[in-house]
Amino acid sequence: MATDKKQKISRDIPLAEITLRKYEKPSKMPKRELIRKVCLSVGLLQPGDSRDIIVDVFNVLLESKLPLDSEEIREDVIKLRKKERLPLHGIAASNIRRQIRRLRELFLVEKIKNKYRITEQESLSTIFQEKIKKFYIESIIIRVEDYFKSIKNR
């Protein structure tokens, strides 16, 4: 007689993840389009996604000389989208905070006393080299290598 074993299905929740995409070399294009390509390149935006509020949140933080709170970011995003004649989709305060959190998770933005700014007010290329490439990506690669070695040893 066969016994029914109920197997517990666990969810595999990653400790860290990043999506990287390669696009054509940057050319003469508007700044918003360059920021959009950065967001696409690091997985903050999906190809073909019309909901691109993260591009404007990132742009506002890049342009700001001072740290901003989430409401100031939201107000500046609205102004920017109106200026660019873009629809005002995704401008709810909760969504703006979610986009800021996504930028923080990739070390592009940091929080200081409930205000946000580009991490250490560094250039994006420095942040990518020091925070994303050397720290984040390297740690993911090392862990993947651990799994490959583990399979070999069994």
Describe this structure in words.
- It is a single chain.
- The chain is mainly alpha-helical and 154 residues long.
- It has two domains: 31-120, Winged helix-like DNA-binding domain superfamily/Winged helix DNA-binding domain (Arc Repressor Mutant, subunit A); 122-154.
- The protein contains five helices and two strands.
- A two-stranded antiparallel sheet has the order 1-2.
- Strand 1 (109-112) and strand 2 (115-118) form a beta hairpin.
Number of helices: 5
Beta-strand proportion: 5-15%
SSE run = HHHHEEH
- Tally the structural domains: 2
Instruction: Tell me the name of the CATH class of the largest domain.
Output: Mainly Alpha
Structural class: mainly alpha
**CATH architecture grouping of the largest domain:** Orthogonal Bundle
Helix proportion of residues, in percent?
A: 40-55%
CATH topology of the largest domain: Arc Repressor Mutant, subunit A
What is the mean predicted local confidence, pLDDT? Answer: 92
Spatial strand arrangement across the major sheet: 1-2
Task: Tell me the major beta sheet.
Answer: 2 strands, antiparallel
Q: At the fourth CATH level, what is the homologous superfamily of the largest domain?
A: Winged helix-like DNA-binding domain superfamily/Winged helix DNA-binding domain
